[in-house]
Amino acid sequence: MDNLNTALGLLVVGMVTVFIILCLVVVIGNLVIRLTNRFIPETVPAGGKSGDGGSAGKKAHPQKLAAIIAAVDVATQGKGSVESIEKK
Amino acid sequence: MSEIFASLTEMTGFGIIGWDSVLMWVIAFVLLYLGIFKQYEPLLLVPIGFGVLLANLPGAGLGIVDNALVHNADGSYMNLLDIAGKHGIMNLLYYALIKTGLLPPIIFMGVGALTDFGPMLRNLKLSLFGGAAQIGIFSVLLAAVVMGFTLPEAASLGIIGGADGPTAIYTTIKLAPHLLGPIAIAAYSYMALVPVIIPAVAKLLMTEKEFKIHMKKMDKQYPPKHDIKHLKTVKIIFPIILGLVVAVFVPSSAPLLGMLLFGNLVKEIGANTSRLAEAASGPIMNTATIFLGLTVGATMTAKVFLNPQTLGIIVGGFLAFAVSVAGGILAVKIVNIFSKKKINPLVGATGLSAVPMASRVANDMALKYDKSNHILQYCMASNVSGVIGSAVAAGVLISFLG
User: Fold this and answer.
1) According to DSSP H, which parts of B306-356 are helical?
2) Contacts of B212 (CB under 8 A, 6+ apart)
3) What is the pLDDT of residues A16-67, one digit of tens each?
């Protein structure tokens, strides 16, 4: 009976702890995103300026751009970078 | 002359082969068959299966001996040279690498170097479902106590529901090392059966309408409040702060989570630490996996494996797995009652750790009902948080019962 009570207690404590930690994951994640969005200056996206050739006049969609940059980063293991994107 | 022939029979193992050894060989062959030909978790089931075979070779002395046999008369542990001399190299490896709890965190470091927190950071709220899916761990702990397991044994059995091999092994080493073999086998076997278990539970609990909930359309209808403008920077800062906070709240989960987050950090830094990330996710993890598999397999001698507890572990492990999947699905269904932005309950089903297989299975299921409904990145959010959730659950169990 004692063991059963302890097991019940562990169920409650364990699930509450897991949720608290995952709530902290959400809070920390949001906090880091907001702070970086606010305090780190935005870099001009590659090929994003109108009139500088490449994608002149037509900006790449930010999500597509992020996906391309992420893909290049993974494929080159962080060594490569995207300088311009041209639509052919 | 006759003495030489008599000692020849003693030299071979024929005289000491028993029915129990043969049965263990059959179990080893089944594990090898599943790993080699069915490709169920081959990286683990092949070394484990071969370890079982080695441990049950008559007269070879490759099985792991009981903890009591590696103690000196004064109760202290033998040194590693004595263990190797008396009980052979497999025991040296086991007591140096497994009993100390070294290999699971090393593997976690490699897992971290292969993990991308990006999908989770883009869908932070979904990571809460990684918590709901841990209910299998604690509910099977309760059931196992009713079945007659001791609390540490029940906790080791329940942790199978976290669907995370290294976590299950780490917890069992700390709480019930005598059950390590059967629990590791059950954990990895059920992880290999994720493509069967998740669809079965999902079909039981979900309606066709729920299978068709289109996550991207929901995102367009209810877009996130803010974009991530500096994803790379966020990915570097996130594991550092998270590691610090989790270690303060649940210090006993730090060996696993700390190594996971370190592995992830060296991967996210990029070119400057790419050699570390490659080493962690390649040679180090592969070497650790070989020794982990072989030594865990070698714990499964006939004496340890062939008893009623093993059957309880196999049944209990399955229940823990199924309840975890169901817990995740039901949590999403409850949230959907109160929220305008509906979530596909398959996202909850992937709150298990089994990364990325659980997400792939859920994505395939969603695509069967709607070919444009790609939910992989959403599932990965709860899937990756499930790794954190199960490590925290393990930490709680170890702190209370260890």
Assistant:
1) 308-338, 346-349
2) B369, B370, B373
3) 999 999 999 999 999 999 999 998 887 665 555 444 444 444 566 777 887 8
- The whole domain housing A35 covers 1-41
Question: B130–A22: do the CB atoms touch at under 8 Å?
Answer: yes
Measured at the alpha carbon of residue B278, what is the angle toward residues B266 and B388, in degrees to the nearest 5? 50
- In sequence order, the 6+-apart residues with CB closer than 8 A to the CB of B268 are B117, B232, B235, B236, B239
Calpha distance B188→B167 (Å, rounded): 11
Q: Are residues A51 and A87 in the same domain?
A: yes
Give CA–CA dist B274/B278, Å, rounded.
6
- On whether the CB atoms of residues B94 and B298 are closer than 8 A, the answer is yes
How much is the ipTM here? 0.86
How far B4 CA sits from the closest chain A CA (Å)? 58
Q: In total, how many domains does chain B have?
A: 1
A78 vs B250: CB contact, 8 Å cut-off?
Answer: no
Beta carbons of B215 and B379 less than 8 angstroms apart: no
Q: What is the DSSP string of B245-283?
A: HHHHH-GGGHHHHHHHHHHHHHHHH-GGGHHHHHHIIII
* CA nearest to B373, candidates B209, B208, B200, B213: B213
Segments forming the whole domain that contains residue B281: 2-401
Q: Which residues of chain A does B396 touch, with a Cβ-Cβ cutoff of 8 Å?
A: 10, 13-14, 17-18
pTM of this structure: 0.84
**Pairs of CB atoms within 8 A across A/B:** 134
Report how many domains make up chain A.
2
